[in-house]
Design goal:
Elements (H helix, E strand, L loop, with lengths): L9 H8 L1 H4 L3 H21 L4 E6 L2 H9 L4 E2 L5 E4 L2 E8 L2 E7 L4 H14 L2 E12 L9 E3 L2 E4 L3 E4 L11 E4 L15 E4 L20 E2 L2 H8 L23 E3 L2 E4 L7 H11 L3 E3 L2 H11 L3 E9 L10 H22 L9
Parallel strand pairs: 1-5, 1-6, 6-16, 7-13, 8-14, 14-15
Antiparallel strand pairs: 2-4, 3-4, 4-5, 6-15, 7-16, 8-12, 9-11, 10-11
Helix pairs in contact: 4-9, 5-8
């Protein structure tokens, strides 16, 4: 006997077509809903813009900044959460700011910076944190505001005796560091390769190949006036103090890579080859992202350790908090010194 055909009303067929999306879990549905709600808050926040963007890296720097007590949160929208990061809205020294902790490393730094620039009404970005020191004329606790950064993590890793790429800026040959001396090293050598950089100032779809990325000149000029009379902290706590008064120096060079550097030989190589002072893992990513889209940017780094040139253990655990606090003090002074066009009430 032939099977009986059943005809469903068109309205029921249409309704059944929409059942599959309802089978997703509440947790899966919550993600886009939360983002949509956050974007609504962003739209409201931007009506009160523009803002200065403040980007730091990880917990000790975050704690040092808020310990100063200068941040005054927006009474209506004190923060908005996006992609796992909390963007805090408030004021510092009369200037409207949006503050975020980006996380360690180049990808985190670039992602947080791009997100801030894309979503918020930002006038420019102040990046800050602690770093290693490669310059013997600087000491732990000092703060540096470099005038340019290099991304020193771009290397062509080659076999022993291989021919270097003609456009490589520098060469690091491992056999030169053999201990004891002499003989080839199977690690071979690496040649420093320049970044491919796309920006609003360059030709469309044609990358530039710079070695150095410059800090915004007028912001650097403002920062240069902070050197005289800048009082930085000398003690990490009641029992641990430096035997000298830390200083602020504007106009040196900085290097960034995805390495935490605690090795004297490599630190000395970077200083000799690039002439850099601060060694960190985020600054060039923030600077490049801002310059790519044409935004003002400055990076401020407190020196927490000697990047392996010290005797004994790395001092970041001893003086990291002091370097972070001194960095925060310079950041606050810089914000205060910016022109009044950044001032506006909530």
């Amino acid at each position: 006997m032939a099977a009986k055909q059943v005809f469903l009303p068109f309205s029921l067929i249409l309704a059944l077509a929409f059942i599959p999306p309802l089978l997703f879990s509440a947790e899966a549905e919550a993600v886009p809903f939360e983002r949509l709600n956050s974007l609504r808050v962003v739209k409201k926040v931007n009506k009160n813009g523009p803002f200065l963007g403040l980007i730091t890296v990880y917990a000790p720097e975050d704690e040092a900044f808020f310990k100063t007590g200068v941040f005054r949160p927006d009474p209506i929208h004190p923060f908005v959460d996006l992609s796992g990061r909390r963007f805090r809205i408030g004021k510092v020294e009369g200037k409207k700011v949006i503050y975020v902790k980006c996380g360690v490393g180049l990808v985190n730094a670039a992602a947080a910076t791009q997100q801030m620039l894309d979503l918020f009404d930002i006038k420019g970005i102040i990046h800050f944190g602690i770093s290693g020191n490669a310059n013997s004329s600087m000491r732990i606790g000092d703060v540096t505001i470099p005038y340019q950064f290099a991304q020193t993590g771009l290397w062509d890793w080659l076999k022993p005796n291989a021919t270097m790429e003609p456009n490589d800026f520098a060469q690091f040959n491992f056999k030169s560091y053999n201990d004891p001396k002499g003989g080839e090293n199977q690690l071979g050598k690496v040649g420093y390769s320049t970044e491919q950089f796309y920006s609003v100032s360059g030709e469309v779809n044609v990358p530039q190949r710079p070695i150095w990325f410059d800090i915004t000149k007028n912001w650097l000029h403002v920062a240069s006036h902070l050197q005289q009379g800048m009082k930085l902290e000398q003690c990490a706590n009641s029992t641990l103090c430096l035997p000298y008064k830390p200083k602020l120096v504007v106009g040196l060079k900085g290097a960034t890579s995805n390495f935490f550097i605690d090795n004297a030989a490599y630190t000395q190589f970077l200083f000799k080859t690039f002439g850099v002072t601060s060694l960190d893992m985020e600054s060039s990513a923030v600077v490049m992202t801002c310059l790519s889209s044409g935004y003002p940017v400055i990076a401020i780094r407190g020196l927490s350790d000697l990047a392996g040139t010290q005797e004994g253990d790395n001092t970041i655990r001893l003086f990291g908090s002091l370097a972070a606090l001194n960095t925060a003090k310079v950041v606050i002074s810089f914000i205060k010194s910016l022109p009044g066009k950044y001032v506006s009430g909530f």
